[in-house]
Amino acid sequence: MTTRERIASQTSPAELPPNVVTLPQTAQLEALYTIIRDKDTKRGDFIFYTDRIIRLLVEEGLNHLPVVPKTVITPTGEKYDGVGFKGRICGVSILRAGEAMEAGLREVCRSVRIGKILIQRDEETAEAKLFYSKLPDDIANRYVLLLDPMLATGGSAIKAVEVLQQAGVPEERIIFINLVASPEGINAFCMKHPTTRVITGWIDRGLNEKAYIVPGLGDFGERRYTC
Length: 227
Hints:
33% of the residues lie in helices and 30% in strands. The protein has helices at residues 3-11, 27-37, 43-62, 102-108, 155-166, 183-192, 220-225, and strands at residues 20-22, 67-73, 79-85, 88-95, 113-121, 128-134, 142-147, 150-151, 174-181, 197-203, 206-207, 213-214. Strands 1, 4, 5, 6, 7, 8, 9 and 10 form an 8-stranded mixed beta sheet that branches. Strands 2-3 form a two-stranded antiparallel ribbon. A two-stranded antiparallel sheet has the order 11-12. Helix 2 (27-37) crosses helix 3 (43-62). The termini are far apart. The mean pLDDT is 90.
């Protein structure tokens, strides 16, 4: 069995929904995830290596944006028939952990506009509830990269897409980017939003009795922001 086959057999369900894409499961990517999963990894290293993965995810997300033909003239005076992105994009982070992915998006997309959504669990109903949102005024006319590092039960991500839909964004113009996902979260999200593209770095075994992703990497926000 090759390295890629071994990794895929350990982490991915046999069949993914058609709107779900994973990063190529290479040995290099597994090494990065091994570092960030290690409970003894220092905060500085955790930030450095998660940033590397986030940039890979953003680049993959951009691969799924539509393009149109575009012709340019090169410095040699020759014509080159290429492509350009169709339409404008923006990022929307799900607070607070999603904010960690904003820098990776800005490194790839210069001057990109970024909105924010805060969703928390309602203690009375146990359902995801919107507490705050600040979105670009023209978001309905943009493609949206939705940013949240962990997809566990899917509740926050599902609610975030609903908030974007209420702001006028069709779900097919949303690309949801995350580092680690559970099969349960993927299935719940895709049943609710089957035309929203999901870009994930790794699919873990599942959820434990506390609804934590296992093997997982712990609380992303706490490891990222707490010394």
